[in-house]
Amino acid sequence: MAQPRVVSIHYTLTNDQGEELDSSRVEGREPLSYLEGAQNIVVGLESALNEKVAGEAMKVSVAPAEAYGEKNDELVQPVPLSAFEGVESIEPGMQFQAETPNGPQVVRVIEVGDETVTIDANHPLAGETLHFDVEVVEVRDATDEEQEHGHAH
Ligand code: ZN
User: Fold this and answer.
1) Could you tell me the distance, in angstroms and rounded to a whole number, from the CA of residue 146 to the centre of ligand 1?
2) Is the pLDDT of residue 83 over 90?
């Protein structure tokens, strides 16, 4: 197997509607560095960047299956309002950390009723096709320590 690389990229992420969701190209932000093969970034973007070298730029569209998966309707469900005891006011869009059988998970409030709150435990980008405008800034071999840790330093 080839020596894993650490790749640094600048990227702008937009959705199908052309809305900017995230960007490394803002003041105070460094390029994003990831360790190849360590699932640091979505698989569809990583495979598009495979073997690319510093200075290369491209546009990549990544389908949900290669990004954050399809939306799972079963993860949208009502919970009793009493579960939010101690929260002063619950509004759609608020996010909470919830304990689930699969470990801690971020859930978003979708709707607030008189007795129930509808929450969505899908990843916020589930079901979205992601459009990356990406430029490779730097490529280098990963150190042994980075490979042990599974991320770039
Ligand atoms: Zn580390």
Assistant:
1) 6
2) no
